[in-house]
Amino acid sequence: MTTTTAPAAPSVPFAGFGSEAALDLDVGSPRVAAQVMARLLSADFEDWSNAVARVGSCTNPIHLTGSSTRVDAGTGEVLSSYSSDTEPLGTTLIRCGNRRASECPSCSRVYAADMFHLIRAGVAGGKGVPERVGENPLVFATVTAPSFGHVHGMRDNGRRCRPHAETPRCEHDRPTTCHQKHDDGDELLGQPLCWECYDYASHIVWQWWAPELWRRFNIALKRALAHLLGVTESQLKDLACVQYSKVAEYQRRGLIHFHALVRLDGPKTDDAFAPAPDGVTAEPLAEVVEEAVASVRFTAPPVFNGDVPRVLAFGAQVDSRPVRVGHRTDDPDGPLNAEQVAGYLAKYSTKSATDTTTGNVSNPHLSRIQEVAAEFATLVEDEWVAAEMPCDLKEVPYGLLGRWHTALGFRGHFSTKSRRYSVTLGALRRARRRAQVLIADAQRSGIPVDLASMEAQLLADDEDETTLVVGSWSFAGVGWDTEGDVALARAAAARAREYAQHRAEAKRANQQ
Question: 376 exposed, middle or buried (CB, 10 Å; 0-12, 13-18, 19+)?
């Protein structure tokens, strides 16, 4: 057998790899620089460095104390035991698992990798999904939010931002036109031409109910598919089912839009991924997706007494394109493969309001959205208290808005999928844990293990598990001791990312 725990190094050397290579540190202040130096010169630096490596340079690890024992479920034999007392630093460290790149670059990369494999499996098979799934009609769709006021933006073909308007100035005596050609780093991008004209209230209400709009889109899509196939909605399940994977991304104007892969399968079966009905291709599926998006409506209740209900819908800009092997979604004449589609969606699954919006504290538009959302939350809570409502605040339509005002009112998940789109994140994480145990056993015994041939075993459900883990653990803290430790962990994570990119580029070069 061959060991697959570490791929062969690329033939092209990596300048930043090796014990003599310096890390790129952004210490920020003399105080943090002193902390970095103190760590590098500390007596336990080697132990600390090994601990950082074991959690993959996580910037905010969780500290646990306790012990665990692995037991054979059939015989009761104790296979191994472990205690945090054996750790040089005195605690067992585990990854924070944060998917947001702004919070933990290392854990975000792991999450993105899992999302990549999850999404790719639903496009071309793998991870327990048969390759025949790639023959079913597939559409890549981008669904946007409507406009709540004119904002500065980059236009196609280098055109000016907003050169024409019905009136030169708004009712607040501000220009309604902009003749600039904004570039990607322009601070005006996403900012309203007039913040008093911008409908912040409707912006927040739409954002709050965006998950409901997506749910209604799924219902409308099934209804439209039934019409396309000439059957009733109740009969659709006997012919076809819709599977999808979607991610949410913040636009510069602070509104969510959805990127989704929508796949049409045949009727649900025990092994799933049945062939689509004869004669249905990706082209009519793309048209049906656009039709369903345009039909979605939801009347949102008033936020507070004196407010008005609002009829919500998706924006007019809908991009719904068939996906075929050999064609890109953004360039019909360019190549497309499963890795490109999966990589695109996986990248956006690790972004959040913090990465693209609220992290910029100098952004007046985004700050204003947060302020209005917080004001609405206070009004809702005050009315709830004054009315002495018998229900819990979370049962009030906008009762939890205060928890989500920093997310600009969006309360949905940033990545979701239908039940039978592909493998689950839980299965991928379980497989990784099992693989790590096998790798550790192989290193102790010196007997190589072929992980590639064990994919089905690694992905098997828990009910097939033959080993039980019995343990008792207590929370002992979170994070590193100093900001200098965090800076070192971030620098190590950045170097690992650079090396992974180097390996990928070298692999592509060797294949050409």
Answer: buried
- Say which residues have a Cβ less than 8 Å from residue 315's Cβ, sequence separation at least 6: 143, 144, 145, 146, 147, 257
Secondary structure of 51-108 as H, E, C letters = HHHHCCCCCCCEEEEEEEEEEECCCCCEEEEEEHHHCCCCCEEECCCCCCCCCCHHHH
Using one digit for the tens of pLDDT, what is the confidence trace for 197-249? 999 999 999 999 999 999 999 999 999 999 999 999 999 999 999 999 999 98
Torsion of CA 163, 166, 172, 175, to 10 degrees: 20
Looking at this protein, which amino acid is placed at residue 307? D
Entry pTM: 0.81
Residue 62 neighbours by CB distance under 10 Å: 18
pLDDT digits (tens, 9 = 90+) for 67-126: 988 888 778 788 788 888 988 888 999 999 888 888 898 998 888 888 888 988 898 888
| Cα(123)–Cα(129) distance, integer angstroms | 9
Q: To which H or E segment does residue 264 belong?
A: strand 256-265
